[in-house]
Amino acid sequence: MIKVTTVDDIYPAVDELVIGLRASGQVRLANILHHRMHQVAWTTRSELFTELGNVLRHAMEADKNICGSEREQVERIMHVLNECLNGK
């Protein structure tokens, strides 16, 4: 599992998360994240990060089936996203 400590870690960590989510049957969320990361043309990095944070936050609230290492990785990614977006 990719350690997420800086904003540069977010990109490979989300890609790794997509693979893990697909393997655990969370295909819908994996497809949404992949789409946001690789198919949407974002104007700024913060725009992408805001959207990723929204998708992940909603997924964690709505889907209790995200568990184990995927849940831990989502929490790490969200933590770094929040720090980045809040200027820390």
Helix segment tally: 4
Helical content band: over 70%
Annotation, overall tally of beta strands: 0
Termini gap: 24 Å
The proportion of strand residues reads: under 5%
* Mean pLDDT across residues: 91
In terms of structural class, how would the helical and strand content be classed? mainly alpha
Give structural notes.
The protein has helices at 7-23, 27-38, 45-62, 68-85. It contains 4 helices and no strands. The protein has one domain (7-85). The protein is mainly α and 88 residues long. Helices cover 74% and strands 0% of the residues. Helix 1 runs antiparallel to helix 2 (27-38), helix 1 runs antiparallel to helix 4 (68-85) and helix 2 (27-38) runs antiparallel to helix 3. The longest helix is centred in the middle third of the chain and has 18 residues, at 45-62. The chain is globular, with a radius of gyration of 12 Å.
